[in-house]
Amino acid sequence: MASCGLLGAKLIHSYSPKIHSMLGDYSYELFEKSADEVEDFILHGSYTGINVTIPYKKTVVPFMTKLSETAKRTGSVNTVVRMPSGILYGDNTDVYGFTEMVRTSGIGVKGKKTLVLGSGGASVSVKEALKDLGADPIVTVSRTGEDNYGNLDRHRDAEIIVNATPVGMFPENGPSPVDLRLFHECKGVFDLIYNPARTGLLLQAEELGIPCRNGLYMLVAQAVRSSELFTDRKIDPGVTGKIVKELDFCMKNIVLIGMPGCGKSLIAKKLSELTGRGIADTDNEVKKLTGRSPADIIEEDGEEAFRRIETKVLGNVCSRSGLVIAAGGGAVTRNENYRLMHQNSNIVLIERPLDMLSSRGRPLSRSKGVKALYEERWRLYEQFADIKVNNDGNISGQVAGDILRILGGTDI
């Protein structure tokens, strides 16, 4: 059996083992190495094939016996195969991965002025793919180069934007490398980041109605091509899309919203049991943070004070991946909370008849009345939600099952 893996400096958040477990019958390990250890590992490590990630894609090039034409052009290797003869063959499957990411997106780049943000190793692979796809001209934007973030206005006619920087990547969610409002001709945005699923750049693209895509398809496509090299066998083209769909479901949180008393907490627990996901209840997280319950904060300090704390909590839990999150009933009343939830989650509205909603222990439901509260919020619930599920009974397991079926099944 082949022995494969991933070489890099920090690999704790890597999804590569999960992807390769769905691609072939071979072991796949994580090899965290310091710069001083790379040469010895490449030359003498016990592997038949490895992927190489930041910061060693250029480091390993001198140790290769043979390079693919793509690796030669980019000066970068992300896949190494040890041949039976002992020859080390280096290839760059990132170019293939980005090509497939663009090809399957429906966003045309041929003949379009394209800005590539970043000048590192990922940028080199992206530009090689863009050349093959016919993008023209291709402009590299860096911090200190001739085209930099201080003179972007000279490129306001750019039609395609590609982010090949780590800006906006977990755990530094939120920031964006550019303001898309500058580019009035923009027809497509690609971000190589896949965690969170929607970076600040992609969230703005969605808000402006610009077609966009994250880097998950590229991650899986390059892994598929690497697997073909590791095993010397072709993989059905449909496998890539299937793995992307399953991984997207696995990585995204499931955020439950809805009126107080609609059953979010019970349904969240059931979802956690069914999928093995971690669970977070924002009301409980508020209590952990402050030592006080949401009801006490609202009664003692006012609703606005509570909402500020709730937003902070949402920012913390929604930046993570693969959780079930029960949000407070009023989380939709702050516009900024939508971005926090939407960045890395499927948002599920739990609907329940008003006469089944209890106001016990809920100061806003008591003071305003359930019906008035619902009339204030129902449009917001509709705007936030990706899907809606009815909870008109008391069987939380059934509702949880409905959610999983709509979202695409169970976890990997």
Structural account:
- The chain is an alpha/beta fold and 412 residues long.
- The chain has three domains: 3-91 and 223-235, 3-Layer(aba) Sandwich (Rossmann fold), CATH 3.40.50; 96-214, Rossmann fold, CATH 3.40.50.720; 252-407, 3-Layer(aba) Sandwich (Rossmann fold), CATH 3.40.50.
- Helix content is 40%, strand content 17%.
- The protein has helices spanning 16-21, 38-44, 69-74, 94-103, 121-133, 200-208, 216-231, 238-251, 264-275, 282-290, 294-301, 303-318, 336-342, 363-368, 370-384, 396-407, and strands at 3-8, 27-32, 49-52, 66-67, 79-82, 88-91, 114-117, 138-141, 160-163, 188-191, 212-213, 253-257, 278-281, 323-326, 345-351, 387-390.
- The strands form three sheets. Strands 2-1-3-5-6-4 form a six-stranded mixed beta sheet.
- Helix 4 (94-103) crosses helix 7 (216-231) and helix 7 (216-231) packs across helix 8.
- It is globular.
- 44% of the residues are buried.
Total number of strands: 16
Overall geometry comes to globular
Q: Quickly give the structural class.
A: alpha/beta
Biggest sheet descriptor: 6 strands, mixed
Give the strand order, joined by hyphens, for the main sheet. Answer: 2-1-3-5-6-4
Reported CATH architecture of the largest domain:
3-Layer(aba) Sandwich
CATH fold topology of the largest domain: Rossmann fold
Unreliable stretches: none
N-to-C span? 23 Å
Oligomer: single chain
The amount of helix comes to 40-55%
CATH superfamily of the largest domain: P-loop containing nucleotide triphosphate hydrolases
Kindly provide the name of the CATH class of the largest domain.
Alpha Beta
**CA radius of gyration:** 24 Å
What is the mean predicted local confidence, pLDDT?
Answer: 94
| Total helical elements | 16
Instruction: Tell me the strand percentage band.
Output: 15-25%
